[in-house]
């Protein structure tokens, strides 16, 4: 089991223990040696789901040695073409993520105690360090599955830099493409001790959350927070304070958590974006936070897997930042 970073803050998908080894990604000889080393381990993703070992004590990712991966390939070409991404290294062992859909009998690895489980579902049950590495693996493999062709000329592209770029195969183009991360602001708007929370139609009954939206090109974090809150709820915002961030691998977002001080609390809900938005008192929010995992609660906040949970908790605890 992977260890936990001492910087872990309690936010799901953060706190990776791995050194990502950016300086080794272009070293073909080093990579070839590490891929076959006896201490190297592979995380196999089947339909973007990791194999998880389930026990009474909890859940853990299943890591495979290089010999298993080589033996499990249908043929050499299938293994060579499968996206394989260097995740990093810890305690001398190197970790890779592999798109295992091309491995023979991959589905047969599942049994009563080993299951391929959706990342969102299993992450809260994993050790924090493993959940963080899993987020990295899922985002990277998903990017390769979606970007097999050059966005500039349409020709087929190939992996480079241990999975951290793709190069167009067209000699007249040769464009290089890099994995993207989409920044999303998620902000708790506050006014006179009250909290502005909203819900979208697809939310489970009773759940309200901090408002959120994608940042736009040429926009600062503060500008995005002010724009999104005004567009979705009609409120005007002054001071914006950054609190924390969270990788969100569905497929590759970065949630940027903020607290926004509202200057005009008048609400005008955009019904295209929200089903409802309203002001809640501190006492109401405390009850909703306590009920965040109670699916039968009439009002509740998102569970701890989401950054909104931690932003609200941070604010209710009276932290100045």
Decide which structural class fits the backbone: alpha+beta
Gap from first CA to last CA: 33 Å
SS summary, helix count: 8
Shape: globular
Low-confidence stretches: 4-8
Q: Determine Rg (CA atoms, Å).
A: 22 Å
Q: Main beta sheet: strand number and arrangement? A: 7 strands, mixed
Instruction: Count the E strands.
Output: 16
Average residue-wise pLDDT: 93
Helical proportion, percent range = 10-25%
Provide the succession of SSEs. Answer: HEEEEHHEEEHHEEEEEEHEEEHH
User: In percent, how much strand structure appears in the residues?
Assistant: 25-35%
Summarize the structure.
This protein is α+β, with helices and mostly antiparallel strands. Helices cover 24% and strands 30% of the residues. The longest helix is centred in the middle third of the chain and has 19 residues, at 128-146.
Description of the molecule:
It is a single chain. With 321 residues, the protein is α+β, with helices and mostly antiparallel strands. It has eight helices and 16 strands. It has helices spanning 28-36, 66-72, 76-81, 119-122, 128-146, 221-233, 282-290, 307-316, and strands at residues 41-46, 49-55, 58-61, 63-65, 84-90, 93-99, 114-116, 157-160, 165-168, 176-177, 182-191, 194-199, 211-214, 236-248, 253-264, 276-280. Strand 8 and strand 9 (165-168) form a beta hairpin. The protein starts with 27 loop residues before the first helix and ends in a 5-residue tail after the last helix. Mean pLDDT is 93; it is low at 4-8.
